[in-house]
Structure to design on (304 residues):
């Protein structure tokens, strides 16, 4: 019997470039998923990046809600990968299920945004993201697109548009559509407040904290005076305008796979008083990789 072949990969031959389609670069789209939204799947299907270069990775909790989401997800996957048009089919799809100890209760938008619930949630989310990342990142992956399961609307050229900036981490601006009762019209508001530029105030608060304490953004009783990308959007201005960021969110975020290969992950603990995606931006920075935000490039979060 012949011994199993040894597979060699030269990581230097895997390009990570501003022209990922021309260079046939593999993209790994990673989504932690507590609930399944049809809008997420429909949006994913309409992305124009060649699907044969895209691998999808999901992680879902092992609770009642996670079971329901997994069933829905698998139904859509079967439709797309088996009976749907060939051009819609993705290269491969990986689904992970994970238990948390103690399990995270299912939380609605208001409940999960309460400050006292954030620390545990963010730590659990960090572990979920790390599990997903470390089990799916392959030797031929060029880019990792973090895309939350409740992102239901993006430009079709999302991947090409973000990659073209050729930055280690690139974050679009995440908004949410809602019905404005004052104007009686559909309107939109900023959603993701984790894309920010640091402030002296936040630094001072952090300096006085205990080693395990974390800073959170978007809470009145912890005013950080950070500059939030959510508020930097200017209508009609260049969608490709760039701003440097010190913290990032995970709703939509394109990362060069080398950033993760260097060891940048999502701390589930206080890392420079930051946690999860914000801690990830800091860890990337300590490894020499600067985050970039696109304030005028919008993607949309589901409205519960
Ligand atoms: P928010 O929008 O920042 O309030 O955060 P979400 O609750 O939307 O969570 C971010 C992402 O993680 C979404 O894609 C969720 O579906 C997913 N998510 C939330 N809770 C869990 C969980 O317990 N396990 C896993 N695997 N994913 C989760
Ligand atoms: Mn969300």
């Amino acid at each position: 019997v012949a011994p199993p072949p040894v597979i060699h990969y030269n990581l230097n031959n895997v390009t990570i470039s501003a022209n990922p389609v021309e260079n046939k670069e593999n993209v790994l789209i990673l989504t932690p998923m507590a609930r399944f939204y049809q809008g997420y799947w429909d949006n994913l299907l309409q992305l124009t990046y060649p699907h044969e270069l895209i691998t999808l990775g999901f992680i879902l909790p092992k609770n009642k809600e996670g079971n329901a989401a997994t069933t829905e997800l698998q139904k859509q996957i079967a439709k797309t990968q088996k009976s749907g048009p060939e051009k819609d089919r993705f290269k491969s799809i990986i689904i992970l299920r994970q238990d948390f100890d103690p399990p995270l209760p299912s939380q609605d938008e208001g409940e999960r945004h309460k400050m006292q619930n954030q620390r545990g949630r963010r730590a659990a989310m960090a572990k979920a993201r790390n599990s997903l990342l470390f089990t799916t990142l392959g030797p031929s992956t060029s880019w990792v697109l973090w895309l939350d399961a409740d992102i239901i609307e993006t430009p079709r050229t999302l991947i090409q548009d973000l990659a073209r900036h050729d930055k280690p981490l690139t974050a679009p601006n995440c908004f949410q559509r809602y019905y404005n009762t004052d104007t009686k019209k559909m309107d939109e508001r900023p959603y993701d407040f984790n894309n920010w530029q640091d402030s002296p105030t936040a630094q001072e608060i952090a300096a006085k904290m205990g080693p395990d304490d974390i800073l959170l953004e978007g809470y009145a009783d912890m005013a950080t005076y950070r500059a939030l990308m959510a508020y930097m959007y200017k209508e009609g201005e260049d969608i490709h305008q760039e701003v440097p960021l010190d913290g990032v969110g995970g709703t939509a975020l394109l990362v060069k796979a080398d950033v993760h290969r260097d060891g940048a992950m999502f701390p589930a603990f206080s890392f420079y008083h930051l946690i999860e995606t914000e801690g990830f931006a800091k860890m990337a920075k300590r490894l020499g990789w600067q985050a970039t935000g696109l304030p005028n490039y919008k993607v949309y979060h589901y409205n519960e």
